[in-house]
Amino acid sequence: MMRIKTPTKKRIKRELDKRAPKLIETGKKTLILHGTKTSNVLNAVLAEIYHLKRDNAIKYTKKNDNVRPFESGGETSLEFFSLKTDCSLFVLGTHSKKRPNNLVLGRTYDHHLYDLVEVGVENFKSTESFSYDKKLAPHIGSKPLFAFIGEGFESVEELKHLKEVLLDLFRGEVVKNLNLAGIDRVYLCTAVSPTKVFFTQCAIRLKKSGTTVPRIELVEVGPSMDFVVRRHRLPDEGVKKQAMKTAPESTKKKEKNVKGDVIEGKVGKIYIPDQKVGSVPLPNTAKGVKRERREAKMNNEAHEPAEKKQKEDSD
After folding, report:
1. Based on the structure, what is the number of domains in the chain?
2. CATH number of the domain encompassing residue 60
3. Is residue 143 part of a domain?
4. C-alpha to C-alpha distance for 114 and 274, rounded to whole angstroms
5. Rounded to whole angstroms, what are the CA distances from 205 to 55, 155, 209, 215, 220?
6. Of 63, 103, 120, 249, whose CB is crowded by the most CB atoms within 10 A?
7. In DSSP terms, which residues pair with 134 in a beta bridge?
8. In the chain, what percentage of residues exceed pLDDT 90?
9. Do the domain assignments include residue 10?
10. Residue 170 lies in a domain
11. Phi, psi of 297 (to 5 degrees)
């Protein structure tokens, strides 16, 4: 049996607390590693992916002979590296005669293999091969936009899976609000065929349009490549159901009879029961009625003595 040793140093405790599950997760880290054999094209692709995710990525340069995610038992070393580096995403590069320039994109859940997508790289162009104004170069850590063009991303199972993995790989930390000036890049993914996707990165140039909303121009800055889908493995249904769970504290309760409006803001409805004004008798305690009765009584008392004196004189 494995012996569980509790940490005694505060530095180690802080590191373990960072890796502990949180209600609001931070950005996912990516592990980039080489397989048994890689080509020059594949080395350049891995370097470009590391450059795009430099703020939350870890790259291994040594070859790993035991990492074979699609084979039984070949994921042991990969899961160990995921636990060691606290990475939930990985990119593995391999090259062989049967599958040249091969990339394996995958995700892990609880540091165990979750799903896999295998693609081949064709028509690769690095960032250095594009000529553009260097002032338009995207900044490290900026939030990217995504554009998925083609019906294949909604109908073909392999492309739908590839879309999910690419979004997880490049989107970074999830935020609610964005500053328009901080959006400087967009990833374009075009479904050329049911098994081929064109991937490139474009910089965003904001120009005057005469209105409050600027006009947007896209400048291709690279890298660009074609992804040819080869193999993919979907997650197990039980593991998927467990991974999709959300904490009870993070779910917001629905407010009844309240809706949001763009112009008026928060709008609510108030339901009042029927008052039945016609059938309910009115109380005879009005202040005006009391006052009239009091004045009439005072007037009667003032006239009564004079009438009595007139009667006595007549007698």
Report:
1. 1
2. 3.40.50.10480
3. yes
4. 58
5. 23, 32, 12, 8, 11
6. 103
7. none
8. 44
9. no
10. yes
11. -65, -40
Per 3-state DSSP, the chain is made up of helix, strand and coil in percentages (nearest 5) of 30, 30, 40
Q: Is 174 helix (H, G, I), strand (E, B) or coil?
A: coil
Split at pLDDT 50, 70, 90, the class of 251 is low
Residue with tokens 């600027």: 214
Contact 163, 105 (CB under 8 A): no
Residue 253: inside a domain, yes or no?
A: no
Give me 131's structure tokens: 């000529």
Mean pLDDT of 161-170: 94
Distance in angstroms (rounded) separating the CA atoms of residues 4 and 270: 58
Residue 90's domain spans which residues? 26-235
Whether the Cβ atoms of residue 142 and residue 181 lie closer than 8 Å to each other: no
Q: Residue 5 has what DSSP assignment? A: -
Q: What is the pLDDT of the chain when averaged over all its residues?
A: 85
Dist CA 221 CA 52 (whole Å): 12
Q: Say how far apart CA 94 and CA 76 lie, in whole Å.
A: 17
DSSP for 207-269 reads E--SSSSPEEEEEEEEEEEEEEEEEEEPPPHHHHHHHT---GGGSPPPPTTEEEETTTEEEE-
Element (H or E) spanning 168, and its range? helix 157-170
Compute CA distances 60 → 46, 63, 130, 270, whole Å: 10, 8, 27, 62
Cα–Cα distance measured from residue 138 to residue 104, given in angstroms and rounded to the nearest whole number = 26
Question: Side-chain half-sphere of 118: how many Cα atoms within 13 Å?
Answer: 14
Q: What is the mean pLDDT of residues 161-166?
A: 95
